[in-house]
């Protein structure tokens, strides 16, 4: 209801009126704005042209009067005063002011004035004789200096600045000046000045007229729009009221008549058709709900009867299922026991196989060990022979080193005798004097060689002594090693005999394990056959029990379904009654 109230506030008539007013106002305002801007621009151009023409005309008059002065017809002062009177409309009064010539139309506040190059006013309505050179406008600009610069350096032109109105000094408006320089009479600067607002006064009048016309057109448009929107909204109101009555369930009303030949008449016609179709549909629903109510009562009775029969079947099947479950349980236990026995036999068989494999590995290791021991015995025999030969060779080396020591001792004795002989020869050579010098040199060299031989023999003696000591130690070590080798050879031969006995025992054990494994395989095969038979019996018992349970479950599902059918039949009966109640809300033809 609140939503309808909100929608009613945004009525079609109101929207049409707003649209109609906007269509009128927007073009008129745009047209008025464009017209005002064009008028203002045109008036500004005309005003500026008027200022320019006034200055040019004044310059021409000055040039003409200057010719009169040059010809001697009038004096310079008379010519200058004549120009001032012509521009301002009268002679200067006692208070220094001059009237403004109304024949020169420069706007309400426009006039022509003359300055020199220093900004002194030579002709002015109020300030003649004063200087505006340092005067500033509202923006702080030295406007008189700008005007003078424009006249002297640019050949003349327009200057714009802000200045208070004569009748209201608090009101600041934009002012325009056209300036031009005349070199006669000491250099006069002619200025035509006025306010921009004086140019735009006619444009403001046009703007007021446009606003008045716009208001008149809006009022006329509102009246026309109100009448036009009424022709649209009245048929819509009829249709809306009829839709409200249809929503309240009143389908017994006469068709709505709309006299227009547009979409509104089509809308009314379609609404009448909808009312007719709703009337037919409600009648059909009423008949269907009555039939549905009757059939739901019959369905409820039938479902109750089927429910009782299915409950009896369920009770019987539950008893059968209980007996089948007991039988299947016993068979399942037997099957489980056989399965456990089978697993034990299988595990024993696997262990026997494992022991057999381990026995074979032990047998292989024993044979390998026996072979290795045989090889070790052969090696020890060879080592015994080699060590024996080494002992003999070291003993021979010790004898030879002792012989070398004896020979070295002989050589050392010879070297000592040679050294003594060389010393005696040197003594005899010294006795012989000059004749014995050559022999003395030879004797000295022989002595040196004998000393070197003696030193070398000492080194050899040390080396031979070391060799004898080492060879003696090696001989002792080899003799001890030979004893150990003989003992090791004896132990290896004993170990080889032990390995041969172990190998024979392992062979016997492997043969026994093979026999055990063969017997276990036979037991496992018979156990598998027995287990398969028991499994088939258990499967059959379980299938029988499952079939009985499925039948019992189906009976229970049937009973449950029939109970649901009974409930749904009651709900259907309730819905049919509710449908009749809803349909009775409508008023039918």
TL;DR of this structure?
The chain contains 7 helices and 5 strands; from the N terminus they run αααββαβββααα. It has 589 residues and is mainly α. One of its GO terms (biological process) is signal transduction.
User: Which stretches are low in confidence, meaning pLDDT under 50 for 5 or more residues running?
Assistant: 1-9
* Oligomeric state: single chain
As a whole number of angstroms, the C-alpha radius of gyration is 75 Å
Number of helices: 7
Which sequence of strands runs across the widest sheet? 2-1-5-4-3
Q: In total, how many beta strands?
A: 5
Question: What is the CATH architecture descriptor of the largest domain?
Answer: Orthogonal Bundle
Amount of beta strand: 5-15%
Count of domain modules: 2
From the spread of the alpha carbons, the general shape counts as flat
Question: N-to-C terminal Cα separation, in Å?
Answer: 28 Å
Reported by name, the CATH topology of the largest domain is: Helix Hairpins
CATH level-4 homologous superfamily of the largest domain: Methyl-accepting chemotaxis protein
Mean pLDDT: 76
The computed structural class is mainly alpha
- Main β sheet profile: 5 strands, antiparallel
User: Topology as H/E string?
Assistant: HHHEEHEEEHHH
CATH level 1 class label of the largest domain: Mainly Alpha
Helix content: over 70%
């Amino acid at each position: 209801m609140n939503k309808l109230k909100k929608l009613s506030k945004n009525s079609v008539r109101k929207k049409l009126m707003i649209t109609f007013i906007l269509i009128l106002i927007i073009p008129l305002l745009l047209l008025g704005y464009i017209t005002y801007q064009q008028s203002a621009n045109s008036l500004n151009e005309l005003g500026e042209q008027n200022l320019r023409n006034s200055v040019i005309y004044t310059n021409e008059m000055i040039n003409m009067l200057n010719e009169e002065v040059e010809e001697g017809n009038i004096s310079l002062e008379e010519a200058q005063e004549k120009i001032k009177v012509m521009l301002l409309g009268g002679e200067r009064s006692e208070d220094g002011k001059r009237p403004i010539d109304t024949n020169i139309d420069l706007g309400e506040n426009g006039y022509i004035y003359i300055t020199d190059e220093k900004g002194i006013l030579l002709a002015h309505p109020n300030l003649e004789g004063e200087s505006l050179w340092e005067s500033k406008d509202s923006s702080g600009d030295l406007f008189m200096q700008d005007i003078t610069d424009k006249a002297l350096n640019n050949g003349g032109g327009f200057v714009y600045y802000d200045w208070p109105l004569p009748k209201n000094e608090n009101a600041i408006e934009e002012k325009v000046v056209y300036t031009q320089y005349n070199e006669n009479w000491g250099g006069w600067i002619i200025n035509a000045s006025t306010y921009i607002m004086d140019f735009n006064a006619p444009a403001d009048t046009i703007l007021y007229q446009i606003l008045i016309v716009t208001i008149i057109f809006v009022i006329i448009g509102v009246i026309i729009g109100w009448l036009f929107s009424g022709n649209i909204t009245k048929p819509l109101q009829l249709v809306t009221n009829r839709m409200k009555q249809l929503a309240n369930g009143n389908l017994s009303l006469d068709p709505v008549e709309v006299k227009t030949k547009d979409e509104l008449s089509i809308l009314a016609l379609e609404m009448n058709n909808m009312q007719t179709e709703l009337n037919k549909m409600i009648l059909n629903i009423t008949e269907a709900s009555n039939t549905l109510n009757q059939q739901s009562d019959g369905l409820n009775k039938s479902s109750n009867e089927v429910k009782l029969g299915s409950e009896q079947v369920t009770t019987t099947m539950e008893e059968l299922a209980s007996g089948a479950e007991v039988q299947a349980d016993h068979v399942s236990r037997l099957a489980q026991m056989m399965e456990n026995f089978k697993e034990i036999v299988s595990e024993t068989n696997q262990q026997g196989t494992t022991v057999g494999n381990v026995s074979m590995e032990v047998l292989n290791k024993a044979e390998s060990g026996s072979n290795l021991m045989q090889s070790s015995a052969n090696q020890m025999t060879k080592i015994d022979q080699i060590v024996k030969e080494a002992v003999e060779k070291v003993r021979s080396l010790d004898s030879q080193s002792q012989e070398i020591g004896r020979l070295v001792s002989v050589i050392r004795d010879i070297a000592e005798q040679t050294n003594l002989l060389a010393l005696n020869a040197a003594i005899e050579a010294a006795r012989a004097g000059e004749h014995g010098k050559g022999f003395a040199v030879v004797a000295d060299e022989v002595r040196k060689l004998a000393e070197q031989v003696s030193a070398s023999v000492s080194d050899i003696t040390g080396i031979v002594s070391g060799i004898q000591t080492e060879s003696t130690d090696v001989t002792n070590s080899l003799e001890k090693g030979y004893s150990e080798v003989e003992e090791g050879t004896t132990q290896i031969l004993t170990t080889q005999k032990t390995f041969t006995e172990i190998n024979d025992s392992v062979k016997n054990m492997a043969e026994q394990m093979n026999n055990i494994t063969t017997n276990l395989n036979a037991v496992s095969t018979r156990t598998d056959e027995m287990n398969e038979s028991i499994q088939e019996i258990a499967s059959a018992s379980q299938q029988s029990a499952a079939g009985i349970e499925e039948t019992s479950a189906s009976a229970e599902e049937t009973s449950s379904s029939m109970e649901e059918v009974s409930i749904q039949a009651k709900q259907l009966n309730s819905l049919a009654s509710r449908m009749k109640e809803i349909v009775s809300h409508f008023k039918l033809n």
